[in-house]
Amino acid sequence: MLSTRKKIVVIADQLIRMKGYNAFSYADIASTLNIKNAAIHYHFQSKAVLGKEVIIASREKFKENTTLWSSFSSFDQVNAFIEMYSNNSKNNCICFMGALGSSYNTLPIEMQQELTDAHEEITVWLINVLKLGKEKQEIEFDITAEEMSDLITSGMLASLILDRVSKHAVLDNVKRTLLKRIEKKN
Amino acid sequence: MLSTRKKIVVIADQLIRMKGYNAFSYADIASTLNIKNAAIHYHFQSKAVLGKEVIIASREKFKENTTLWSSFSSFDQVNAFIEMYSNNSKNNCICFMGALGSSYNTLPIEMQQELTDAHEEITVWLINVLKLGKEKQEIEFDITAEEMSDLITSGMLASLILDRVSKHAVLDNVKRTLLKRIEKKN
DNA sequence: GCACTTACTTACTAATAAGTAAGTATATTT
DNA sequence: AAATATACTTACTTATTAGTAAGTAAGTGC
After folding, report:
1. Chain centroid offset of residue A102 CA
2. What's the mean pLDDT in B167-181?
3. Does residue A116 belong to the interface with chain B, where contact is any CB pair within 8 Å?
4. Residue A57 counted as domain residue
5. Among A20, A106, A151, beta carbon nearest to B102
6. Residue A55 belongs to what domain range?
7. Do B20 and A92 touch (CB under 8 A)?
């Protein structure tokens, strides 16, 4: 059983990824958890603080995941990373980077900073996996690791968004294409 | 000199791509154009109608552009398409597909439908250019045209978003990588 | 010169937003 | 047993939201 505080973060996270930061309200959280509006304010001074907490929780989950994957081959680590994004699509959700990045200009500065740090953290990890994988000859690609990292994160972020908009399966197409791109030939 | 009606659509478009559909208000438009709140309602019955009009205007601009590009080589057409996305980055804006797609679940149905149709229109055009280009041997790629189309639209949509979040130039990396991907070798 | 339309403004409404101050019930500490 | 902290609720405030009803001023058509 989670504490109310943790439940609020979980619900806020889902609401942000389902509706966006500016479209969800304290009333949405309160009604879901059967508590009152003011109870949220007891745990979080402001919406900005709650929003920042949601990003922090996502960063912690990411760190946990990468630790779990650390014994995997480079290909499997990238694959697990891609699958982590795919899992967001449950309940009509997108990833937190897409949900918050798309309204970056309207976010309170503390959330902007946390989001930028989160992106940096993800990018540093992915570039490292790609570089090491190339060295170890577990994967191959003909562009720089930085370019490959941007291609993967961009592709996954957007295909979650476009999967909601489009009639066909954008996510599946992009996943397949990206993995094919780093796969060893012969 | 544009009519007030057209000015409202232009400003609404910029606001949507800068702040998102749920973060902009009639007050934002009114203050920019030095008119009153109610004047917007005179031209558009509701925010949903205005939002739909913004998508329609974008679709018309897209059709104009593709007509202008029709004499270009396949590579140059894809390049022009990518540059069209890049131009969105002025004034801290993203593309309308990213701005509206990321809050798809909160949009009124008429906007959802118009956005889905817009995506379909863009995809049909791009797949066609890619297929013809491959036939004419003006470009080359080792995946299907459908996969390549999804990779390009996803990459451009997301790199505009991540360019705001990231410290480094995601947009440049993705643009370069995508063009390299279809470029003829030798 | 009168009817009618166009393009607004003034003045408002009802709903919803985040946030707050003060009170309460329960458990924990001393 | 008294004091204190925890985890809320009740009741509210202030600001902002989209939207509306009624009025007006400047043209247009006849």
Report:
1. 13
2. 96
3. yes
4. yes
5. A20
6. 48-182
7. no
Protein-contacted bases of chain C (C-beta within 7 A): 7-12, 16-22
What is the distance in angstroms measured between the alpha-carbon CA of A23 and the sugar C1' of C27? 37
Count of domains observed in chain A = 1
What does each of the 186 residues of chain A score in pLDDT, given as a tens digit? 789 999 999 999 999 999 999 999 999 999 999 999 999 999 999 999 999 999 999 999 999 999 999 999 999 999 999 999 999 998 899 999 999 999 999 999 999 999 999 999 999 999 999 999 999 999 999 999 999 999 999 999 999 999 999 999 999 999 999 999 999 887
A38 CB and strand D closer than 7 A? yes
Restricting to B residues 18-57, those with a Cβ less than 8 Å away from any Cβ of A are 18-20, 22-23
CATH number reported for the structural domain that contains residue B168 in this entry: 1.10.357.10
